[in-house]
Amino acid sequence: MTDTPLAIIGAGLAGLTAARIAYEAGIRPQVLEASDRIGGRIESIRSAGGGIVGDLGPTWVWPPFQPGVPRWLERLGLDTFEQYDHGEAVLDGFANGPVRQPLPGQYGMARIAPGPGALVDAMTAGLPDDTVQTGYAVSAIHHHEDGRLHIEAPGQPPMIADRVLVAAPPRIVAERIQLPADIGDPVQDMLRAMPTWMAGQARAVIRYPRPFWRESGLSGRIASRLGPLFEAHDHTALEGQAALFGFVATPPGQRDPASLGEAIIAQLTRCLGPDAAQPSEVSIRDWAEAPWICADADRHGPPEHPRVGPERLRSAHLDGRLWFCGAETAAQSPGLIEGALLAGEAAAQAAVQRLQGAA
0.90 cut: is pTM over it? Predict the structure, then answer.
């Protein structure tokens, strides 16, 4: 059995943000991650040299409308670059054959340089090497006899924590983690009702030797009724490595990676021309198959974007011992990169205040 002043369940961006806040305040946290890697829905494709050349999770931020993003990027020494959207888009399935046509852009859309994985790298820089424990799949949180919280995980030594931040997606918490009964049914219902952003989605990144679509006056943007990608965009890396990315329309349970990759290349060839038939790499990430991100309700229900949930989700529970701070619990941009930053930050600040007040 181990003791910690602060246990953080989940090493996605929200959990890592919370860990950073706590450590900078002089509190050494322990982050417990169920999977075998950190980052949660942020998952980067890296070159042989370790550079980020693609993103299989969230890609965009909107700094003019998300003040938490530029504030944190400045703090971490990171920057953004423009989402490439110059030239015509391709409409697929709206007429007899693909049609080139300008589409309205989205003002303020930007990408983190060199990719969101840089957030994970920067957030963990300076933390002690043993801060995060992977493969620690929390199954239950109980009251300990001394008033602290007792955390259990199969095959792992239990942990006793003064304070606990639960930074996993709310639906995963409701489905996978047994919480103390005095959390209450209304809060459990709030957790179950909060859809997990991107959880049932699959994303594809298709890398090419050069951004040939730009050469022919295309933006790389595709809107399709035929699929398998219902939407695609230029995803060329900051250093110039050419790529496209797209959201897969094929429903969960019907996504065979081999045939899906072939169908994606056929679609891109139809829409962008013969150069699209020769990718250097195709990567597909089916988030519906990620057991600690996609809950059953996300996998089998309609895709939904989380809306700002009740304030009770952001409040202290169990007499100030526990907070929920998955990205979906945020009071702004729930489920998005900004939401993860703000949720982790707010919960950690609240826990730190309690811990320092009790010292």
Answer: yes
